UniProtKB/TrEMBL annotation:
Keywords: ATP synthesis, Cell membrane, CF(1), Hydrogen ion transport, Ion transport, Membrane, Transport. This is ATP synthase subunit delta. The keyword Membrane applies. The keyword Ion transport applies. The lineage of its organism: Bacteria, Bacillati, Bacillota, Bacilli, Bacillales. Its main location: membrane. This protein is part of the stalk that links CF(0) to CF(1). It either transmits conformational changes from CF(0) to CF(1) or is implicated in proton conduction. Transmembrane segments: none annotated. It comes from the Bacteria. InterPro entries: ATP_synth_OSCP/delta_N_sf, ATPase_OSCP/d_CS, ATPase_OSCP/dsu. NCBIfam families: ATP_synt_delta (TIGR01145), PRK05758.2-2 (NF004402), PRK05758.2-4 (NF004403). HAMAP family: ATP_synth_delta_bact. It is found in: Cell membrane; Membrane. Belongs to the ATPase delta chain family.
């Protein structure tokens, strides 16, 4: 149910941002809020605490973020606090980003490798995958030594496993089936 609620809030925010031509700015501001709250345990605790007064929470949010966010994003935060839905902010940001990317024709891709990719490798991968998908890609990279070699690509909810670890696991499964 929280996914549907998050989608409605994200849709409303997206429509306002689109109308005011602030899609990118709103996304950046939401990312800033999410990372700030998640990085500061005390702030997160106060914002999510059920016994702290709504007005006090809104005053704190206003004081912390007033200089960094526009009125639409501030209004969203206040509405979430008023309706005790502060806990779905990250879901709203994810939904908003998905909508904004769809509107801009961008696909977020997460690439996991055993070693960090060089910028040239990242750009080549973005170009090749982008041509295959006929989309503009925004690549985020992760490093996971357990990958051993190769790459693991996540596009939306799809995974493409070209890792050595994945190949070894599939080979092991084939051996079990062959017995």
């Amino acid at each position: 149910m929280s996914e549907a609620v998050a989608e409605r809030y994200a849709r409303a925010l997206f429509e306002v941002a689109k109308e005011r031509e602030t899609i990118d700015a709103v996304e950046e501001q939401c990312q800033l809020i999410g990372s700030t709250i998640n990085q500061h345990r005390e702030l997160k605790s106060v914002i999510s605490h059920p016994q702290i007064n709504f007005e006090d929470k809104k005053a704190i949010i206003e004081k912390v973020f007033k200089k960094d966010i526009n009125q639409e994003v501030m209004n969203l935060l206040k509405v979430l606090i008023d309706h005790r839905r502060e806990g779905i902010f990250d879901e709203i940001v994810d939904e908003y980003t998905t909508m904004a990317n769809h509107y801009r024709g961008i696909v977020d891709v997460v690439v996991t490798t055993a070693k960090p990719l060089k910028e040239k490798e990242k750009n080549k991968l973005a170009t090749e995958l982008g041509q295959t998908l006929n989309k503009k890609l925004r690549i985020k990279t992760k490093v996971d030594p357990e990958v051993i070699g190769g790459i693991l690509v996540r596009i939306g909810n799809r995974m493409y496993d070209g890792t050595m670890a994945g190949k070894l696991a599939r080979f092991q499964q084939e051996l079990k089936v062959a017995r």
